[in-house]
Amino acid sequence: MPETKSNVELAHELSHDHEAAHKRRGTWLGFAEAIVLATVAVATAWSGYQASRWEALSAKEYALDERYAVAAQDKSSRAGQEQLYDSVTFNGWVAAKVAGHGDLAAFYERRFRPEYAKAFKAWMRMDPLHNKAAPPGPAFLPQYSSAAEAESHRLAEASAAHFDTGVVAREHGDDYVRVTVFLATVLFLTALSQRFEFAGPRAVVIVIAALFLVASLYFVLTLPRI
């Protein structure tokens, strides 16, 4: 008849089995924590890299925005000066023409800017001195144009485009910064899980950390990158 084990021996075997199972669970939890930490390290490095790239692009676009805005203002000022010059020379021509000073009127005509002279010729073909339906002056005709004003509008549009690009780049950079905050939370939870001696609470914290990590990885994989 086999010898019956004593209660002490049975308790010792049960205790040994429990310690072995506890050790195995601890090993798997440690392995899971190591994977989480390694993934967090890589994802944090990538998020930081992308955030810095987007921030650099944003700064570059803002600088270009300022550069084009200054150039647009310069061209706008030049266009205003040219319009004032056109107005002064035209008023001089009208005064000379009305006074019957043909030579002086011809002098003013020779002083017209090429852009204004084109509109002036079109205006003269309408016989404005006798045709009451003619526009008040060449500046009111579609032939009148200003290269400086057109360039000013082009530069202003370029400035606005660079500003918009800078805003979008900064937003993408902020998105990556938020991802690093999520990853820092994962790192905190993983470190916290290692403080628990029992496998149950430790596993719960690891699961929560893993959920945060999955969300962070989703953002990392879906956000624009450069």
List the helices and strands and how they pair.
Layout: H1 7-99, H2 102-110, H3 114-124, H4 147-193, H5 199-222
Helix pairs in contact: 1-2, 1-4, 1-5, 4-5
Number of domains: 1
The Cα radius of gyration reads 40 Å
Which overall shape is indicated by the principal axes computed on the Cα atoms?
A: rod-shaped
**Distance linking N and C termini:** 78 Å
What's the pLDDT, averaged over the residues? 85
Secondary-structure-derived class: mainly alpha
Strand content: under 5%
N-to-C series of helices and strands: HHHHH
Please bin the fraction of helical residues: over 70%
Number of strands: 0
Number of DSSP helices? 5
| Unreliable residue runs | 1-23
Instruction: Report the biggest beta sheet as strand number plus sense, adding barrel if it closes.
Output: none
